[in-house]
Design goal:
heterodimer; A: 11 helices; B: 256 residues; Rossmann fold; six-stranded mixed beta sheet; 11 helices; 10 strands; 42% helix; globular
């Protein structure tokens, strides 16, 4: 176990040196600033619109908006915040998918191509420990990404003074689960094909590209179930049992992918 | 210390190592020679547990290669031929990870690392501040050699260890392995630089196409085959006898 953690911490250190997480955090900061500016601008427009309507409305009170107008204003602002939450969440999912594909498709294959795997496997490290360590390192980085996403969303809501939709509290966790599934597919495929090809194939490995009449729909992973865009947008509640089921599904899927990857990696000749 | 019994490796239809058998005692420096594609690197990779043999058996320090690969790895150090390093780690991070993999306490590992970098004339600041990707070829080599010897293994495999080392470092390295052998370590030294092998090694093993050709002391082999030098003996055994004439013929093609 200690060996697996050593390999994992090594991977994390290498990724940190590559400034990957720093780049992601800076991108998030830029995105929050951009969205804050845009959202503030839109909110001002909406508020001004309602104020103008109130001022020109012949049936309204002479001072400010009617209660009905205030209610409609609140609904408009809430819809706007839902839209921004959904957009930021969507960007986080896409960005995280790309980060996950990059990390996991190159974790093992790049060491094989560069030859550094010989340095590692000549040490008291088995191939199983090596593969699991690499995967665990990627898990830690994706956990950091999910945490950064969660903090970014909370910070954004705080800056803009709106309440987060109830579903969004599950979004970072479900996003994390989905990206680990995606990463496990990428790691497996990278043991067969070039990492770039593995990443592209993994990106399109979800069953959402097939109809329910196609057998592949039931074999390929259901990433779409982890994307709760509509629940975020419409402020729906998500049952914790659904989250638990999806988490267990993700765990089972990852275990199967890793077992296949181990089988392939053990058979691979490192010449 | 090292024992091979009909060790074999096949890649599909190709036999890279063909029933290789020999034994190496503690304190020996063995030159492991052969032309390109002879099976030297494949043999070393099997003996260091990186790839599994197709047949035969081998043991290192009494541990069976196939049933106890981790124990074998704990007792060997390996300097591979390729100059690949972990470019996204600093030298110190890499060496401390190696120390941790061998179970060396961090303080002890740090002290040994400092001894090695002093021997190789590297600065500690270079080790801590620069990523391995920014090191020169020779500096990378020194770090990899350090990683192979850090845990004080009884058996060390070197595959072209002098590649990239400057003349002073090469002299120091040769003195180092001779001292290590006198202390009882077993050194297997694979190299194409035959005059170094002839001077440094107690014994040479020459293989070609995966098979053992010769095994013995360099001076005895040279005398027995009346070849003058190890280099001439090597070229005679591995089909390189026409090289001088072919070089002359080829050079003539460049004449106007």
């Amino acid at each position: 176990m200690k060996t697996i953690f050593l390999i994992a911490s090594d991977s994390i250190r290498a990724l940190l040196h590559q400034r990957l997480l720093l780049g992601v955090m800076l991108a998030w900061l830029a995105l929050i600033i951009f969205c804050s500016v845009e959202m503030s601008s839109e909110r001002n427009e909406i508020t001004q619109q309602y104020n103008y309507q109130a001022a020109t409305d012949s049936t309204g009170t002479t001072n400010g908006m009617s209660k009905r107008q205030q209610q409609r204003l609140r609904q408009s602002l809430k819809a706007e915040s839902s839209e921004y939450q959904t957009e930021i969440y969507g960007i986080a999912v896409l960005g995280g998918d790309l980060v996950s594909l990059f990390i996991f498709s190159t974790a093992v294959s790049s060491e094989i191509r560069k030859g550094t795997i010989r340095l590692t496997l000549s040490k008291p490290v088995s191939r199983i420990q090596f593969l699991l360590g690499k995967y665990l390192g990627g898990v830690a980085v994706m956990a950091g990404y999910a945490l950064t996403t969660a903090l970014a969303i909370v910070a954004f809501a705080h800056i803009q003074s709106f309440s987060l939709n109830p579903a969004i509290k599950w979004a970072p966790w479900l996003m994390f689960c989905e990206q680990l599934m995606l990463g496990s597919v990428a790691m497996l495929l990278s043991l067969f094909v070039h990492p770039l090809v593995a990443a592209v194939l993994s990106f399109f490995s979800g069953n959402s590209f097939y109809s329910e009449h196609n057998p592949l729909y039931y074999i390929l992973p259901g990433y779409r179930d982890f994307h709760i865009f509509s629940q975020v947008y419409y402020s729906s509640l998500i049952n914790w049992k659904d989250v638990l089921f999806l988490s267990l599904y993700a765990l089972d899927f990852v275990i199967i992918m890793l077992l296949l990857a181990l089988w392939r990696f053990r058979a691979k000749e490192l010449i | 210390m090292i024992s091979l019994d009909k060790l074999t490796k096949r890649f599909g239809a190709q036999t890279a190592v063909d029933a290789l058998s020999f034994e190496v005692s503690p304190g020996q420096i063995v030159g492991f020679l052969g032309p390109n594609g002879a099976g030297k690197s494949t043999t070393l990779k099997m003996l260091t547990g990186m790839i599994e043999p197709s047949g035969g058996r081998a043991a290192v320090c009494g541990f069976d290669l196939q049933t106890q690969p981790i124990e074998v790895k704990r007792n060997v150090g390996f300097v591979p031929e390729s100059g690949a390093v972990f470019e996204s780690l600093t030298g110190l991070e890499y060496l401390e990870m190696v120390g941790a993999l061998y179970g060396i306490p961090q303080n002890a590992a740090r002290a040994r690392i400092k001894q090695f970098i002093a021997f190789f004339d590297l600065s500690f600041e270079t080790l801590t501040d620069k990523l391995l990707g920014a090191y020169s070829k020779g500096m990378r080599r020194k770090v990899v050699i350090t990683s192979a010897l850090l845990h004080n293994p009884p058996v060390v495999f070197f595959d072209e260890p002098l590649d990239g080392l400057d003349a002073n470092a090469a002299v120091g390295f040769k003195a180092l392995i001779q001292t290590l052998a006198r202390e009882g370590k077993t050194i297997v030294y694979s190299s194409h630089i035959l005059d170094v092998v002839e001077r440094v090694c107690h014994r040479v093993i020459i293989i070609d196409k995966g098979k053992l050709l010769l095994d013995g002391k360099p001076d005895e082999l040279v005398a027995a085959h009346d070849s003058g030098t190890l280099e001439k003996l090597f070229t005679r055994l591995t089909g390189g006898t026409e090289l001088e004439r072919r070089a002359e013929d080829f050079a003539r093609t460049f004449r106007p």
